[in-house]
Task: structure prediction
Amino acid sequence: MATGGASIAHPDEARADDYSELLDILKAKGSLTQGEYRGLLAHHMQHVREAASAARPQYVPAQRHVATPTSAHAPMRTAMGNTVQPPGQIEIGGGGMDPDYVLAQAQQAAANAQASAASAESTWLAAQHSMGLGGGDSFVRMAKYEPGKGLTFKAGPININLSGFINGFYTYNSPAGGMPVAGGVSTGSSGFDSSALRNGLLPAGLILKLSTTQNGIDLAAVMGMYPGIDNAKNGAFNANTGGSPVGLGTAGIDFRQVYVTAGNKKWGTFKIGRDLGIFGGDAILDDATLLSVGSTGSNSAPGNTSLGRIGVGYVYADWIPQISYQSPTIKGFQGTIGILQPLDEFDFSGTDANGTAYSAGSTQHSSPMIQGKVTYDFKIGGLSARIWASFLTQHQQDLTVSRTTTVHTALLEANGAGGIGGVYDLPTTTTTDDAVNPGQKRGVTAEAGEIGTKLTYGPAQFVGYYYRGSGLGTTGLFFDGVASNGHKRASEGYYVQMMYNFTKKFKLVGSYGVSNLYLAPGETNPDLVRRNESEVGAAYYKMTDWLNLVAEYAHTSSAAHGPYKESDNSASGGMILLF
Result:
C-alpha cells in the first residue's frame, strides 16, 4: 500500500535475501548436492514464514506521527552476536489513512526484516557446522570432485584421498616358433597358442593417502594395495611369480606402496617407506603399455601383471624400501637422492645342460643401494618438455654360483631263485652354491645410468629413453648381471614412443624398444639371451572421465648369443577404469 511518498511491502511476501543467493552459488559450484540445497532452503524459508506469521501488524494508537527513536528499543543481536539497529525516525506523508496505523505497519516490517536476517545468519551457521565448513575437527565433508584426482574427504585439517584403477583384458598369444632362449621374454618356442583373461602391465589398485600440514610441514601417509584378477602362484617373485589357473585358486595382493613424506616447497621433501625406485621410474611411468598389455610374459598362466615394455626397452624400477630426499623445484630443476634396500644378484636365466647356473648370485650386502636423479622441466612456446638423468650403484658381495650334480647308482635286484634280476638306475641330485672363485670371496659393484626425455606439442607426444649398466643385468634389477665366473656383464637398452591424440577421446600409440645383454670377459654361453625387443601399437578411446577402451597388438622376439631365437605375436582388447 502507499500513502503519498511512503510504500510498505506486505511482510508475508517471499523475498530473495543474501542467504538464498549464497545457497544458489554453492549449488552452482558443486559444493552442495540438490538434496542438501533443497533441505537448507526449505529450512530457511520456514524460519522466514514463522517469523512473519508471529508478527502480524496490529493497530496501536500513537500520540504522535514520529516513530520511536532507536535508543528506545532493546538491542537486537544476530547469531554471531552483532547488534542489529532497528530503524530510526520514519516520516509519514499524505492522507486518507490513520498515520498511527501506517506507522505500526512500518515498524513491524522493519522488525520482520531484522528477524529474517538473523534467521538467515543462524541457518547459514548451522549449514556450515553440518558440512564441516566452520573449521570443526570432528566433521567430514567431501571436496569438489576433480577427474583423475580420486575422491577427497576433508576431516578438519586432514585430507583423505582415495584413488585407484581396475583393468581387464582378453589376450590371444600366438607363438611364431623358434628355440628357447635362456633369459628371453618371448614365448615363441612354447609351440601352442594361448588365450587369457588377465590384467595388463598394471594390476588393479586402491591407494589411500592422508595429508595435512602441521607446524609448516606438509605431511602425507600413503598405502597402495594392488591385487590382480588371476590366481597367484607362490615363488621368488611372490604375487608376481606367475599364475596358477586351477580351481580353488585365489588372486594375489601386492601391497607395494607403504610410505610417509615430510617437507614443504621451500626445503624439499623426505620420504621413508616402500615406493617406486628412483632409477627407471620415469621410464615405466611414461610407457604407454602401462595402460595396456605389451609383451605378455606368460599368457598360458598369467600372473598379477604382464611385462609391458619391461625387459624390452628398460629395466624394471621395482618397488623398494627407501629413505630419499627430493629438493624443491628451482627454475625447472629438481634433484632426488636416496638410499634403498640392496637387492640380491639373481640368476634369472636358469642353468645350462651341465646343471651350472648361467649367472652368479649374491645374498650378502654390507651397504645400501644408492640411486639419484635430476629432472628439468621447461616450456618453449607450445612445447612442454622434461629431461631426466639418473644413476644407480650397489655393491654385491660374496658371489656364488649354483651347481646341480646328479649321481647315478646301479641297483641289482635279486630274483626269487637266488639269481640276479633287473638292474635299476637310482639317480641322486644335489644342488650346491659354491664361490665363483673356489676358496675366495669375490664381490663386484654394479653401476648404471639413464637419460630420457618427454616432449609434448599440441596433440602429439614423444618419449625417448636410453640406459646402460655394468652388473645391472636385464629385465629386472640385477637379473643376470654377473656371469658364473664372477665378472660383470654390460647391458644397455632404449625405447622410442609416439602418441597422437586425434580427438579429446581417441589416440593412437606406437613404440619400439630393445634390451641387450653382453657376455662377460672369459664367458661362453651361446644359449644366454643377447637381445629382447618388441614393437607395440595400440588404440585408446576415452568413453568417460573414468573409463578407457583399449585395443593393442604386440610382437616380441628374443635372440641368444648363439643361433637360438624365438618370437611371438599377441592381440589384446579390454578396458581400464581410473578414478
